[in-house]
Amino acid sequence: xxxxxxxxxxxxxxxxxxxxxxxxxxxxxxxxxxxxxxxxxxxxxxxxxxxxxxxxxxxxxxxxxxxxxxxxxxxxxxxxxxxxxxxxxxxxxxxxxxxxxxxxxxxxxxxxxxxxxxxxxxxxxxxxxxxxxxxxxxxxxxxxxxxxxxxxxxxxxxxxxxxxxxxxxxxxxxxxxxxxxxxxxxxxxxxxxxxxxxxxxxxxxxxxxxxxxxxxxxxxxxxxxxxxxxxxxxxxxxxxxxxxxxxxxxxxxxxxxxxxxxxxxxxxxxxxxxxxxxxxxxxxxxxxxxxxxxx
Amino acid sequence: xxxxxxxxxxxxxxxxxxxxxxxxxxxxxxxxxxxxxxxxxxxxxxxxxxxxxxxxxxxxxxxxxxxxxxxxxxxxxxxxxxxxxxxxxxxxxxxxxxxxxxxxxxxxxxxxxxxxxxxxxxxxxxxxxxxxxxxxxxxxxxxxxxxxxxxxxxxxxxxxxxxxxxxxxxxxxxxxxxxxxxxxxxxxxxxxxxxxxxxxxxxxxxxxxxxxxxxxxxxxxxxxxxxxxxxxxxxxxxxxxxxxxxxxxxxxxxxxxxxxxxxxxxxxxxxxxxxxxxxxxxxxxxxxxxxxxxxx
Amino acid sequence: xxxxxxxxxxxxxxxxxxxxxxxxxxxxxxxxxxxxxxxxxxxxxxxxxxxxxxxxxxxxxxxxxxxxxxxxxxxxxxxxxxxxxxxxxxxxxxxxxxxxxxxxxxxxxxxxxxxxxxxxxxxxxxxxxxxxxxxxxxxxxxxxxxxxxxxxxxxxxxxxxxxxxxxxxxxxxxxxxxxxxxxxxxxxxxxxxxxxxxxxxxxxxxxxxxxxxxxxxxxxxxxxxxxxxxxxxxxxxxxxxxxxxxxxxxxxxxxxxxxxxxxxxxxxxxxxxxxxxxxxxxxxxxxxxxxxxxxxxxxxxxxxxxxxxxxxxxxxxxxxxxxxxxxxxxxxxxxxxxxxxxxxxxxxxxxxx
Lengths: 295, 296, 353
Description:
The complex is a heterotrimer of chains A (295), B (296) and C (353). By secondary structure, chain A is an alpha/beta fold. Chain A has helices spanning 8-13, 59-66, 93-99, 111-114, 121-132, 137-150, 156-160, 169-181, 199-215, 227-233, 251-255, 265-272, and strands at residues 18-29, 32-44, 48-52, 74-77, 80-83, 86-87, 104-107, 187-191, 219-224, 236-241, 244-250.
């Protein structure tokens, strides 16, 4: 819809950005172990990868696990977790932190809560730059203004000095994108980046995100519950349920009626419970879940 | 034994009483898991027992002077030593438990209902009544409690009763605040609307439905406040404005030992330890009760 | 700047100014009402006192006509509300009556003793803030571990120990047994005449006059009472700081700061604490006011010539003018500190600025 899909071959020939094999996230609670992610594997190149699922399917936990941001009592296990040839599993926490923001970054759901309320938005962006680059305050400010411009904010100098409560949701999310991209990471995880926004600004923010990701040749992990959005926005899609990948498929195939027979029943269920204006249904299907899928 | 446990833990109680007892039992189980809270309960129970059986526990008459045995250090006879009039300090502390208990109970009896009524009325009626009552509450809250109590005692004259009155006058506002906050929540509930639709009077709704539901928070608040009341009472006693001699009040006893603090340390030390332990007991108990009863 | 922009800016400025105007108006009316309540209470207390103020003037054996004349002179024959109006008028002109004990104006007495209390309470609060805030933060970060336990124990003891008893025990241990600190009083007798009171705050006066020996002596007297008060302030502040920080650390912006790659140190001490500071200001102000009150008992123990001891001394001598004057001043300081913290809190929080 927004961009032609880059040829898959070029994304796959070079070294992958991220390789995950059998990722597991467990929480040890007094009532037993909660398995949020149970053996997820994928490889990310310079592409747009969507992860869809209902709430509680472990999609957000996957993003957090990659960033080493699972709070205790959670634990992250994997057979393989490699960022551009660097093994994340054996890396110490300090080095993992240095990767955050600079190499792997994340845009979160609601700008209202994910921006520090007592700091101007500009200083929060500049701060993100100065964590990773030796730069004077002035240089960081200039960079930040440039970044605000890049996310299509019209008066960057004015917005720079505003506090988060003084900007609208759409502008807040663009600020968030500026903040998370200013250190020029290779991978951006977008965790429901537009779910908290008004429908009218959702597409606008998505377009900005897409432009930046594509022009900079980044890898994007787009986490969402919205199948339509993922389908039109991503190259590949992972459908998750109960912490497991039900299937991975090219986004184009989701809409392909002729490929229906090859789809996983859960994916079909997700597709089936969406209303369709062109083919109105009297009753939307209830999503069916089979415990056997998790075996 | 098993039948009792079954009776209490059943999922389908047969009577209202069984349901109520069952809930109490479950709260008790939760409370019992908190070790510090159990210690607090132990201290408070011990205070009650000591106060009840003071004459049996104390080896000497708390008022009996023995000028030959003045300021004796702690020994096998006088466990905590003797004061400047030769009175046994241990016996005085044991009897002092009664004084402390009387003060605390009197203050709570005066403050609890007043705070509850003002808070519940204010929260339930709302409007100008609420604004006026809360303004008065704020005025009292804005004042230094001890200094205000001092001023009241100064006006009324020193003595146990006046100290209690002075503490009560300065202690009610937080209770009213808690009761009001609870009432504001309860007022929104659907079943209150249902009671109103059945034609119950305002007074009946406040008294029969709102007040009982405020009680748990108020009990927690009261328990936590006990320590503060004990400390304020001891402070007034220390300044000579509370219980008058020869009543064995702990604060006054510390004051009496002040002169000899550097030479006969025990006179002022032991009553202070008693205050600390009792206040600690109420604080621990209050914390535990809050965790169990005040889930909000 | 274009015309449109200029007008928009001045519009925004006007909005902000009028919002502040309304705010200050509301705050002032609150202060006025509270002040009125305070005056009413002290006035009523003075009326309740069983001591007849007329007899205090004319003596017990005065003839009835002399008594009545004195009564009229004191304004006691007027209706109660008129008496109250006169009282309020007097208070606002700085007339709190004359102290029976010192035979001086209560206002002058308070001016003389108040700096000593201020010195004590300020240092106590300083100790509470400097130690309490970091302890509370650490307790929140390491929940259930030793800083948390320490904060919990300090909190429990702070709410369970009588301040006057702790002061006595401190004197017994650190002054009598160990000799680490100065004893009761504000400064040793030997140094008493070396420092001329200018500000009334003895440390400042000594420092300004270059009397460093006197300064250190005064300091050694100040350490223990302010540490005792500081402990209570510490207990309260660390407990509140802990709960505010726990709430802040669960916020999304904290995760966002971590995503940016900020060090945990900066996340905690810069991002989260900066937010917890907003409610903490109120707590610190409250604690400061409570210390003024705590000084009533502490000053008695340490023979500290401040407002607290002035009030208690007057109390024991039934010197009602002095007691009520002192009460009024402490109450007014309470109100002032509350107002100050409200305004400061709004300044620190951009959302209410």
